[in-house]
Write a structure and sequence with these properties.
With about 450 residues, this protein is α/β, with parallel strands linked by helices. The chain has two domains: about 1-25 and about 195-365 and about 385-438, 3-Layer(aba) Sandwich (Rossmann fold); about 25-185, no CATH class. It contains 16 helices and 18 strands. It has helices at about 25-45, 95-105, 110-115, 135-150, 160-170, 175, 180-185, 190, 200-210, 220-230, 290-300, 315-325, 335-340, 395-405, 410-415, 430-435; strands at about 5, 10-15, 65-70, 75-80, 85-90, 90-95, 125, 215, 245, 265, 270-275, 280-285, 305-310, 330, 380, 390-395, 405-410, 420-425. A nine-stranded mixed beta sheet has the order 11-10-12-9-8-2-13-14-17, with helices on both faces. Helix 1 packs across helix 4 (about 135-150). The radius of gyration is 22 Å and the shape is globular. The protein starts with a strand and ends with a helix. The model is unreliable at about 340-365 and about 425-438 (pLDDT under 50).
Amino acid sequence: MQQHFSLAECDVVGFDLDHTLCRYHLPQSARLIYDSFAHYLVTEKGYDEDLLTLAPDSLDFCCKGLVFDIEEGNFLKLAEDGTVLRASHGTKSMTFEEILEIYGRKEWKHFNTVSGMVSRTAKYYLYDNYFDLPGALLCARVVDSLDQHDGQKKYDFWKDMVAAIQHNYKISAFKEDCGMYFPEVKNHPDKYLQRCPDSVKKWLKQLKNAGKILLLITSSHSDYCRLLCEHVLGNDFEEYFDILITNALKPGFFSHTPNQRPFRTLENDEEQEALLSLDKPGWYSQGNAIQLYDLLKKMTGKLDPKVVYFGDSMHSDIFPAHHYSNWETVFILEELLGDKGTVPAKAESEPLEKKGKYEGDPLKVPYFVSKQWGSFFMDRLPGLENAEETLVHTWSCKCISTYSTIAIPSLEAIAESGVSCSFVWKSRCSLLWILKNS
């Protein structure tokens, strides 16, 4: 069935901040994140000091869409049907025979839960964004270290990894100069943050001039949000948006729970009293999509305003905005710039207006395409008993076609098309193919 998406038909345009509006120099930020976690494990929890050193090509291990089987110490790349395509124990790749012996040619035991977008439990952790990925490499190296020194069969270090994450990313860390991450970004923003291209800033202004309501919804706290926005957009960044929401605690911001988090006002980046409702545009903290949508109805004068949301995390942005709020979603997937994995189905349609290719050379990053893990979108499944291998979609690819309206490598890819860009396609995967090969 032919589907159509038009930005011009959207009343509200929302954006995530990190790795969407604000793009990072990935090699530098990945190393900083790894170091911040590793330093905590070594200095606070007594782990092996070898974790503090990294071989130049180590970050090749990092690949979006990996699931960490915590108790077994194994990392898994899943097919769309839940079977295991590739796996590693620690950093060491497992052979096809080892995968068959441990997991068989059947749905992974936790696939039903992970496919429901439950990204973290005591049993597994899903790595789906650049803030998390360096932690995957660290966990794999911890498994290697424990195997070497203790010969463990089951692993219980995850609580220490969670503590490392919380220590470096907690809300008060920016203000307190706690951990390694925030102090380093504050002191050297140019090393880690890319300036927003003029084409994107011009496009944001065009959207507002065309009468669109612009949202910024980020889980980053207001002080870190301010640093990022001032650096990448300029000191006048607040003029680009009608509503700014920080510490949104996504995906909970979107999910329909009985007791929604209230919005809170901010004063000097400190959260103030809870609000019974959201009555006017402005800068807020926490909150929920239901009360936000009530305000959008008032601002647009429509009973059912159409919202599109741009984000880089399937778990925190794309799935919940689509599933709970029924918003259109645009998935920012930088792997589209570098992943040349083939897509077998030829695109069956063309966009009505296809402009805005990525400008300049593709970013030089450590893990657009991992040599160890292969394509983000597809992989080859070996045949059993001399049968021919088959080409299958990954579970990550299936999520794109299920929950995102379109997928693009960056905002530049759509900004030059202006406010009236429209796409028509017979399947969501075909549009992804067009953008990936443009």
